[in-house]
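Hey everyone, long-time lurker, first post.

I ran two proteins through the pipeline my lab uses and got sequence/structure pairs for each. Pasting them in order. The first:
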Amino acid sequence: MIKLKNIDQKNLADELQSILDKYSSKELTTQEIANLHSRDENVKFYLSLLKKFKTSSSSTEEQFEQSITEFMSKALGNKDRDELHQILLIYLLLTAPYILDFFNTQKLSNKKKHIKNLKQLFIDMTTNVIKTYEDRLERTLKEIESKK
């Protein structure tokens, strides 16, 4: 059996503290703050996509599918892959199958009414996701500004 040597716990704790102090900070860097501001621009981008989707024609099933697919592809194709992008990716991946499968329902009467309600529900819920993120981001930015 191999006997392990004793570890000097005092020295180990001091070394660990030294390493943590070296690579830790109590404040965000200028670059990190700039990144937060760019996230605010992404919020505006997603809201503008949603506004365009809201005003798009969806009087037929095909038009609705085309406009929602366009919204999803532009939202997910955004080059900035921040937290909101990841949240929307997960949200859209979870909701898209239900939305698109909805029209496969047999004997669905008054499709126009269902399209209108489904579109409004999607807009409301997606806006809620984006606005919740925006609210938290704004609070974070205000908190940072108040510390300056």
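...and the second, right after it:
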Amino acid sequence: MPTPTQAVRSETKNYNPLWDQMFFDDHSDINSALQAFRHKFGQLASDDQCQLCTAPFDGPIVKERSRNSKNPEFCDACDKFMREHFPGKTDLHPCPCISIDVVGSSEVRNDEDYLEDVQKPFEAQTFRALCKHDGFLENYRGDELRGLYPRGFSGDDNAKQALDTALFILQNPIKNHKGKPINVRIGLHIGPVQIYSRGDSPETFSGCGIVGAGINLCSYLTGEKVKGGAYEALITDNLFKEIGIQPVGPVKEITPKHIKEGEEEVIYAHVVTKSNVKTIEKFLRQSS
């Protein structure tokens, strides 16, 4: 059986193949050439550099690059050129996605201290966890983070990077300023997404939009319609299959309501908690 990324893509009208190359193809040849340049001139530039193009963020011979607003470990130039000169969209591609949502927030959201005690620490710590594992922020929707791991930026192990993000949060709870854990749930899924240029903000990665079943179903996993508790991750069979390891945790069969055409009718998600982390890490070591 093929993995999700080996499945045949659907035909998407008017997509730009250059966008496919940027977000979903391997950039090893490009990176090798850039790394050779950096090796030769590295002593003249900062070691603090973009993880994709390796351009330094500062240095005497290379113009300083601004950091990407969706992941500051990358520069803003890698996708800016595409959006400014070749606006368009990708085809539909399977892409690992993550949702992190505050549990029970509807009951306390109107508390006057909620912004400082919950929202701001939640945003800061989840964003750091996402960036630590080469993920990109899609958006914050209230107190839910939505992120993705496009292969062109996050690498060939992008599905593992998504899983590592969830494992990291399960072991390092999100906390408020008083050190009290903020209850969150995590959803992980790999499914079709399409990245496109909005055209309204060419300066940063925020000028790109993301749509598709991958991000929608991932977000559904952490919603109120799927019963569950705090500090558990719902990880789909698709994601485990993409990584190539045995699924861990009891399985839930989930059928989203009001599902759109082209989205999966049934999702099989495994409930993973902190007690499962060592088992998953063992499987990851065995598969490497």
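Reply from user beta_strand_b:
Welcome! Quick read of the second one: The two ends are 20 Å apart (CA to CA). Residues 4-10, 200-206 have pLDDT under 50 and may be disordered.
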